[in-house]
Queue: 2 jobs
Job 1
Amino acid sequence: MKRILEPELMLDEHQVMAYAQADFEIPHQDFMRRLSTWVNEPNFSGTALDLGCGPGDISYRFAKTFPLCTLHAVDGSSPMLNIAQAALSSDLAPRLRFIQGMLPTVILPQSDYEIIFSNSVLHHLPDPQALWQTVKNYAKSGTRIIIMDLLRPANLALAQKMVKDYTVNEPEVLQRDFYHSLLAAFSLEEISTQLAKADLQLQLEQISDRHVFITGVIR
Ligand SMILES: C[S@@+](CC[C@H](N)C(=O)[O-])C[C@H]1O[C@@H](n2cnc3c(N)ncnc32)[C@H](O)[C@@H]1O
C-alpha cells in the first residue's frame, strides 16, 4: 500500500483538544520505559531535545523522570504549544522550555544536545529527511537518539482492523487521526533507506504490530 500523507502540523483546535485529552498513559509510559532503559542514566543532567512535542505529555514525563535534566521541546503548532505551556509549573519552568519552530529549519537555543528523542512525528512529515536532518544538525559525538513511530500496515483492511482493535473506545476524531496516521506512516524498509540517505547509523526494532523503535549513539 502506498503512503497517503496527512496534514503535517496539527492545527485544528478540535483535533488538538481531542489529542491533548486522550489517554496516552500506556503508550507514553511504554515509550518512557524503553527510553529510560536504553539511556540507563537516572541522574542524566545534560540537555535533551524533544522533536514534535505536541501538547507536551512526553516532555513532562521526561523532565520528571530525569529530575536533573534540562529539556527543550519543539513543535510547529501553536495550539499544541499553548496547551503544553499552560501546564508548565514554576518548579519545572527553569529546566523545561517549549519552542515554536518547524523541522528542519528551527533555530534552537543550543548548538547540540546530549539526548534527542521524538515520538509519533516522523509519519507527519512530507519529507522524512526533515527529522533526520534536524537530528544531524543538533547532535554531536555521543548524542543518544531515541525515536518511536507508527509503521504503515500492508493494506487498508489491516489499518481499519487496527483502528477497531486499538481505538474503539476513543472519540471519533482520534479514531480518524489514528487511521490517517497509519496510512501516512513509513515501512521498516523505507525508514532504513531514509537513514542510509542521511548517513545515520541507527538501529531499527519493530516492537509491536504498529510501532518501530529507533535508537543509536552518534559517532
Ligand atoms: C502526533 S503528534 C505527537 C506529539 C508528541 N510527540 C506525542 O507523542 O504526544 C505530532 C506533532 O508533530 C508536530 N509536527 C509535525 N510536523 C512538524 C514539523 N515539521 N516541525 C515541527 N513540528 C511538527 C505536529 O504539529 C504535532 O504536534
Job 2
Amino acid sequence: MGTSSDRAHTRVVVVTGGGTGIGRAAARAFAERGDRVLAVGRSERTLREAADGHPRILPFVADVCEPSGPEAIVSAALEHLGGLDVLVNNAATASFADLSGLDHESVRAQVETNLVGPILLTQRALEALEVSRGVVVNVGSAGALGLRSLAGNAVYGATKAALDHLTRTWAVELADKGVRVVGIAPGLINTGVGVRAGMTQEDYDGFLAGMARRIPSGRVGEPEEIGNWIVRISEPEAFYVNGTVVTVDGGLSVT
Ligand SMILES: NC(=O)c1ccc[n+]([C@@H]2O[C@H](COP(=O)([O-])OP(=O)(O)OC[C@H]3O[C@@H](n4cnc5c(N)ncnc54)[C@H](OP(=O)(O)O)[C@@H]3O)[C@@H](O)[C@H]2O)c1
C-alpha cells in the first residue's frame, strides 16, 4: 500500500493563518498528533497564543502576500524544523460588498491572500514536498461549492472556487512527484470571521443563529471540527484521497 510520507509519525507542517480560528485548531491538532508545526501569520500575539502550552508549535511572523513571504516561510520550516511534509494553505481574508460597493483594495487583498499567496507558497514549497512525498491541504469554503452563492460574498467565493480548481489541477500535475493535494471545504464555523469581515458582533451572532436553523446537523461548527479533518486528510492513511475537496459543513451544502 502506498503512503504519502515516509515519516508517518512525526512530520513538519506549515499552517498559514495558524494564529486564529481554524488554523489555530489545526496547528494544535497536528501538534497533539506529535507533528512539529510552523504557525504562520502577521500577528505575533495571536501566534504566541496559539503556541501557548503547545511546545511543538513554532510561531512565525510572515505575510503570505509579501514577495518575500513564501521564501521566508519555507526556509523557516527547513532551517528550524528540518523539512516540510504538510503545507496547509489556510490563511484568507473576506470582506462583504456587492458589485457596486467593491473597492480595488478589498478585491486586491482577497485575491492576493486567498489565491496568489497559496499559489506562490506552494510553488516555493514544491521541492521540499517532493523530497518528503508530502501533502498540500487547501482550505476552501463550502459556500463556494457547486452552484451556490451568497450575495455580497462574490470575490471571496470566487477565490475559493479557484482554489478548489487549483487543488484538482495540482493533484494531477504533482502526482508523479509523489505530492498529494486535497481541499477541505468548511461550512459555517464559529471563528469570529464575520466580525473581522466587517459585521457587528450582534449581526454576526444573528447570522450564525439564523444559519444554524438551516444546517441539518443543527448548529454551526467549531474550529476543532475542521482542524481535526485537516489533520486526517493529511495523514498517510488518507493516501487515496487526492484531488478532491472534502466538505465538512453539517450538511448545509446539500440543502
Ligand atoms: N469561519 C468560517 O465560517 C469559514 C467558512 C468557510 C471557510 N473558511 C476558511 O477557513 C480558513 C480559516 O478561516 P477562519 O474562520 O479561521 O478565519 P480567521 O480566524 O480570520 O483566520 C484567518 C487567518 O489568516 C491569517 N492571515 C490573513 N492574511 C494573512 C496574510 N496576508 N499572511 C499570513 N496570514 C494571514 C490571519 O492572521 P493575521 O491577521 O495575524 O495575519 C488569521 O490567522 C480560511 O481559509 C477561510 O476562508 C472559514
